[in-house]
Each structure stands twice: as structure tokens, then as C-alpha cells.
Amino acid sequence: MDYQQLIEEVYHEVKSANPSGKVADYIPELASVDPNQFGMALVDLEGNIFGVGDYQVPFSIQSISKVHTLAMVAHVFKSKLWSRVNVEPSGNPFNSIAQLEFENGIPRNPFINAGALVITDALTSKFDNPIEEVSKFINEISGKECVQINQEVMDSELKHSERNTALGYFLKAYQNFDNKVEDVLKIYVAHCAMEMCCVDLARSFSFLANDGYSIYAKREIVTESMARRINALMLTCGFYDEAGEFAFRVGLPGKSGVGGGVAAVMPHKFSIAVWSPELNEKGNSVKAIMALELLTDKLKFSLF
Ligand code: GLN
């Protein structure tokens, strides 16, 4: 399979269809991003890189970092962590608070904000300096010192964190939060404010296409069984209330972020990152989803 030709074809088809959306505008730093940027990078399991468009431009990875943080604390299945967060699709927007009350403070899954806050709370308990540990972890599994935290994005997120703060206190009211809400929020916004380009992001997802083993870190990051579980969670919950649509159209485990990035994996073949800042009303990148849909159509296989 000529992956370079494949992604170039996809890139040009998406460019000429030019589906539009709206860049995230809840903070000024994201609202001012050039909406026309678009890039994709595919990395195979030997580490060969195929890229097109703005694939080397760093962007805000936002909620894609929830996969990295989950991988850092997930290793023991059936540990206490999995009694604190469920593994069901939410069918609700990423920042919804409603289900938490009906489900006794147990978030539906680790990728909605409530669930990701529980994961970041677990990280906060585990490490003395969690922000440094997350950067170190992502650098290690990308094989490169690539992670930059955008300080302005981080400060701005903190200033506009009313909803996430509310989620934190709600979790605390149900005894599902061990640390101080403000402390965990700082770590959460820091990992959301990390910037990476498509190549490095695809590399950082490579272990999930490779049964948990990272060819960059040269070690098992999660067990083969946990890699399958994280992929299952991405497939069912990675796009919040659009997870079904993404599985239907693309058929790959993937995770989106409001910076316009999507990272996805084709188990035993490759990992891929696509970035275009314009989002649909569910907060997912319009062009990235279209690109991945075309990609699996052209490949004639997905997970299925
Ligand atoms: N920082 C954003 C938030 O917590 C991340 C959301 C996302 O990328 N879906 O609201």
C-alpha cells in the first residue's frame, strides 16, 4: 500500500470539497487560529512517516491528551480506577454535567470531561509533578522532545474553567475526587494546552496500533489487553455524542480535540493524526472526520 499517495489523494479531495465549520471560540487563543490549516500524518509500525499539508505545524491537542493520561494510569484493569469511571458511551456533549447526578458521581467514560478529570485526579495522586510526568511520557512515546505547553492557552483555559470547576466539585460531592479541585484543574488545563504536530501525535499513538508496545520508547507502555481496551473506549466514546457517527463513517478507534485534531489507529498497521481547526456542532473537526472517512473507504478496510 502506497500510504503517501493515499493520504495525498485524500488531502486533495477534502480540500476541494472544502467542508466548513467553526473554530473553537471559548478562548481567544483558539478563536484566532487560522481556520484554513489542514494536515495529516500517517506512521506505520516500522516508524515510516507519510505526511501532507500542514502536518508539521504544532497545534493544541486538547482532549486528545485524555488518551495519553488514561494510558498513564490505566494499566491495572479492575483496579480502583475502573470503579471511579465507567466505560459506556455518554451520548452527551463532552462537558455535560447532567449524567453525573443520575449516576452517583461516576462519569460515563474517561473521555468526557468529568471522566478525564477523575483520570487527572488519579495522576495527581500518583505523581509529585504530574505536568512534568505527562510531558515526559508523551515525549518518550513520540521518540522526541516534542511537547510544548502553550502558556497563554493554559491561562485562558483556567480563566474560563467554570464548567470544569463545577464538574470537579460535583465529583468531590460524591467522594470521587481525592485532591483539591483547583490543583487538578491546573494539571488538566496544562495537558489540554499541549501542542504537537500531526507527525509527533501519530507517533505518540503508535503503541495503541502495536499491542501496547512503543517502538520509540522501546518498551511496553500498556499491556496488549489494555491497548485493546483503550482502543475499544476510543471507538465507543472518543467522539462523545458523535462516537456512533465516527464509528459508522470511519470505523477506527480515534480521539478528537477542540483544537481540531483527531488521532486514530488501525491496529497492527498504523496510527494517523489529522488536523484542521474548523469544528462541527459537536466540537469535532469537520475536515479530519471527512479525511478519515475517505481514507478507510479508499483502503477498503477499517476495524471491520
Ligand atoms: N480544554 C477543553 C475543555 O476541557 C477540552 C475539550 C475538548 O477538546 N473536547 O473544555
From TrEMBL:
It catalyses: L-glutamine + H2O = L-glutamate + NH4(+). Pfam families: Glutaminase. Its EC number is 3.5.1.2. The keyword Manganese does not apply. One of its GO terms (biological process) is glutamate biosynthetic process. One of its GO terms (molecular function) is glutaminase activity. InterPro entries: Beta-lactam/transpept-like, Glutaminase. Keywords: Acetylation, Hydrolase. Substrate binds at residues 63, 113, 157, 164, 188, 240, 258. Homotetramer. PANTHER family: GLUTAMINASE. Belongs to the glutaminase family. This is Glutaminase.
